[in-house]
Structure formats: C-alpha cells, structure tokens
Amino acid sequence: MSARQSTETNAAALPDWLARSEEYVPGSVKSSGLLRSEKTIEKLLARLQSGSGTSMKHALHPVTYLVSFVFALFALSYTSLAYVVWAIGIAEAAVLVQLDGATLAKILKRSFWLLLVDALVYVPSVFLGAFNWLFLVKMFLILVGSVTYATSTSVFDFITALKQLHMPNFFIFQFDVFVKHLHVLGAQLLQMLHAVDCRTVGDSRSQRKLWSVIVGNLYLQMVELGKQLYDALEARAFAGTYTYMVHKMKSVDFALIAGEVLALAGVIALQTR
Amino acid sequence: MALFSIQHLSFGYQDKQVLDDIGFDIETGEFICFMGPNGGGKSTLLQMMLGFLEPRSGSIAYRRRPVPQWLADPKLKREYHQQVGILFQNVDVQLFNSTVYDEIAFGPRQMGLSDEEIDRRVQDCLGIFGLQGLAENVPYHLSGGEKREVALASVLALNPDVVLLDEPLVGLTSNNRAKLLDVFDQLHRLGKTIVMITHYFDQVKDLADAYVIFGGGQAVKKTRAEVFADADLLRSVREY
Question: pTM for the complete prediction?
C-alpha cells in the first residue's frame, strides 16, 4: 500500500496487485445444489409474477372461473354416474381446446405426472380385485381441472375472486401479504444466489455451507420487511379493514354460474334418486 | 480489441420490448457509463452481460467468446466470474458472510490463494476504504454506505479485469460518493474496464471515456467529446 490513507472523501491509493493481471486458472470444479437452485427459483418467480398467459384470461370474471372450478371438483367427487363424469370431461375438454398450444402442453404434462403417482398408489387395489375404472377417470379429470385452474389463473385473479366471494378480510389480507412477501423474498433469494454465483470462482462444494447463512440473512430481511410493511400500513391509517375495488361481473358470468348451479343440483338429484 | 461486443441484441419482458437490435463494443480499459430513463434497459443489459438473462436475439461476446459459452463450462464460468466483477445495486443481497473479513476473503479463498496472500488482500481492501476497524463486524449491521464499500472491497479482492457497477452512487452521502468515484477513477487508471449505470452525469463527466444512452429500446454509444458537442444530448443526459 502507498502512504496515502483513506479520508472522508478520498480512498487510499489502490494496492499494487490490482494493477497486475490475475493469472488464475480454476482447478477441477463440481457444481453445487445451491447454484442449481437459481433456475428453479426463477421459474417459481415467473409463475408468481405472470400467472395466466391463456387466451381465455379476460373472457370471464375470476369469480366465474373459481366457482366453475369448485363446482366441477364437487360434482366429480360426488357422482358415481358414468355419463355425468363424461359430461364433465367434455366440458373440461371444451375449456382446454380454447387454450394456446404451449399452455395446453404444460397442463397435460403436469397432469400426466400427477396421475402417474396416483395410479401407482392405486396399483395394490387392482391386485386386491377392487379396480374401478371410473375412479381413475374421475381422478384424471380432477387433476386436469386443478392443473388447468392453477396454470391459467394468476394469483391476482385468485385473490380478486376471494374478495368478491366475501372471504373474511383477515384471511385475504394475510394471503395477499404472504404472496407479496413470497415474491419479494424470492427475488431477494435469487439475487443472493446470483451474487454467490458471481463470486464462486473456485470449487463450489464449499458453497453448500452457505445455505444456512443465506437462509439466516433472508430471515432477517423478512422480519425487517414485515415490520416496515406494518409501519407503512399504520402510517396510512390502517385499522384492520382491508378495502378493495370491486370488479363488476357481466351478465354472461351470472348466466354461466346460474347454469352451473342448476347442473350441480341436477347431479345431486340424479345421484340421490 | 473489443472486450465486450454486443451485436443485434434484443430483449423484452412478456409483451414489452426493452432492447431492440442494439449493438456496440466496450474496449479494454474503457470507463463507460450507461445512462437513460428508468426502464430503459440499462440493468437488463448488465444482467445479460452476466448471463442472468437470456436475450431474445443477438449476442454478447466477452473476449470474442459468447457469454453463454463462458457460462456453460464450469471452469470457464469461474474464470469469467473472476475476470468480471459486479457490484449489485442492492448490496444487501451481496453480503452473505458472518464478518466483514470473511466477506472480503470469500473470493480469494475460492481462488485457493495462500493464507498470507488472502490476508494481504483483505487488509489492502479494507485499507482502500478505511474499514480496518470493521473487520470483525457483521456486514448486515453496517450502514448503507459501509455496506457498499464492503461489497466493492469484496469484488476488488478477486482482482477482476472488468468491474460492472449497477447504480453504485444511489443513496449515498456526497462524501461516500466522492470516495467511491475516487476508487473508480484509480481503477480506471490502473487499466481496469469500468461499466457503470448511473444517473449522476455531473459527477462522472470528468471520469467517463464514453456513454451509452438508453431509451426507446435503443442504446447508442457516444464518446465524451460527442456528448459535450451536442447541446441537446448534454441537456438530456443531465436530466436522467
């Protein structure tokens, strides 16, 4: 180091080794799980951020989507009539064909893997002579319906639907804040992993030890963020009531829900006859 | 020889096109400032230079090798990260060790340097900013200005050839800003390549060799002389 020292406005003179070009050749390297996690977090964040990319996104009100989804699940779980199951299957297919190719492929891929796991669990009952093909079809339709809803509906749309279905303020507020926190912390975590990645110039096996430090830092930031959020709410006269803008439902939404209520009543009547 | 070569680069977030067919070179030893309005694509380009984002089309090459190729091979990737340092805008994400000493020593330890060399580098880097008294402190508990100095020290400890700086002057006192700019100026004089995103034109106007002006999906490189010769451009960069 030169004699020049750091002051309030000036840095000390830079050391000589910074003037030399670094002749660094990394040794053998193995990638660690820590750095592979970046891609996974990126995907999750993109999911939270974007939500739906489907052609149906704005065709109906979020409440209509949620109610239709819940009714379909209920009807599938309740009925043991094959023609009702097929009718719901046709309705689900009608929804699917309106989606773009990429979304459709994503839904079918996810549903297939979930169904595979369920089918494996179901295998023992086949050997015990209790096989029921309708059960598997119902399972498949429930999975496709759930994955379709999750894939084609954004978190924002889901919260909007909950609000207008008069879910308690407290629940919606907690859920809304949780999702926002999740996104902010996910972004923080991703940036931390990027920062680690940028300075991982050697054997990354030592990075495994960093997980605990990263999670600790993230926790500290989460606590601070929570306090800041509550202070900000109080500063804006928050007194526990979570008010929100109401999005109007169109007549087509009401008509569809009314039709679904009638159909569900029909399913119940047929089943109990 | 161009250190970074950016050619026909385009990028967008969902429906929004942020960068549209941009291209310029960054020369070895150049001090270059990215300027432009918020959302103009400055940070986006920096992230693509580090491989965190993938362009829709076009390419970024470092030392004539495309950045994705540097990052695809584990050995080359580590070489790239040693040569190209980054100071993030949010330094909280960059500090992940238990003490300031360990934070600065993290990179040199990764490089497998000897204990003496690691200690020398850490002490030198602490000395640059006068942080010797904070060596045993927890980085998370430092002030904003100190955190940024520690983060920069931890980058310098790797002795990179290029230093990328994402708005390093934001939120600092004028004294802290002056000290950081002094470090950047010294690094530049040592032959390091400096790429800095900033909105403080008046503070960097005597340091930067060139500017890249972002806006409307475009990014145009201008030398310092060209910026000062164009009154309209000079006025607009002062307003960013």
Answer: 0.75
